[in-house]
Inverse folding.
């Protein structure tokens, strides 16, 4: 199947998806099961196949990234979905030894860690996040900031006013409280910079696949994104307080 960088070869077999079983997959599957039991719609894990691969239900539809930047109504719905995932994660154990790609400071919540347009499948009114391989300890703010960058489409050469409208819709869909709203503009810049730093360090140390991603354009993209987010901070401040209570 097309897409993906870090989870290895992914193939579709009938109405299932097969992907490599990683060192963290057991915990990831348990986390997904806990969320499903609390009402979150996600690809159902079906154990391992004869080759030891993780088996998941195939989720039909189109990737949101193929239509990005998204209409504000879809962005609002995505924000609500992210909120439902965070709420369903409350109370689950947060293991201290569960390593994640870009750690948050003082993690207190299990999160997907890549709730972005490139991992959202849209099938009419159904929205489902896929690719849970990077799940692990984080915080609402750190996870929300990354997601807001993607769904707000806060990327270089994008119309800033449209970005502001999408960011406002996303934060409103999430029903962010005043504390989260106040912290988000700084977190947006920190999260974009952290992504670029990961790619740069990976290139310097030979860590794959992120080292190759750095030279294949992802490094330049995230550096530009970090600069774009910092340059227009006032617009993001206006967006998050516009309708926030």
């Amino acid at each position: 199947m097309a897409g993906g960088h870090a989870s290895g070869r992914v193939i579709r077999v009938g109405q299932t998806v097969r992907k490599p079983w990683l060192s963290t997959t057991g915990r990831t599957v348990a986390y997904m099961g806990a969320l499903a039991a609390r009402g979150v719609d996600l690809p159902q894990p079906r154990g391992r196949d004869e080759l030891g691969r993780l088996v998941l239900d195939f989720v039909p539809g189109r990737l949101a990234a193929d239509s990005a930047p998204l209409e504000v109504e879809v962005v609002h719905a995505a924000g609500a979905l992210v909120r439902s995932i965070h709420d369903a994660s409350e109370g689950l154990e947060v293991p201290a030894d569960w390593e994640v790609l870009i750690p948050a400071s003082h993690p207190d919540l299990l999160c997907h860690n890549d709730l972005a347009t490139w991992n959202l499948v849209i099938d009419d009114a159904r929205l489902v996040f896929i690719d849970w391989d990077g799940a692990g300890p984080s915080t609402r703010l750190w996870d929300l900031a990354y997601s807001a960058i993607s769904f707000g489409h806060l990327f270089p050469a994008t119309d800033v006013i449209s970005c502001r409208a999408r960011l406002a819709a996303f934060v409103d869909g999430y029903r962010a409280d005043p504390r989260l709203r106040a912290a988000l503009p700084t977190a947006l810049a920190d999260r974009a910079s952290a992504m670029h730093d990961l790619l740069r360090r990976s290139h310097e140390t030979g860590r794959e696949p992120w080292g190759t991603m750095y030279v294949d354009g992802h490094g330049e993209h995230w550096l530009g994104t970090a600069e774009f987010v910092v340059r227009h901070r006032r617009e993001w401040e206006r967006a998050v307080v516009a309708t926030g209570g």
Observations:
- Helices lie at 25-37, 72-89, 140-152, 160-174, 178-205, 210-231, 233-242.
- The radius of gyration is 17 Å.
- The mean pLDDT is 93.
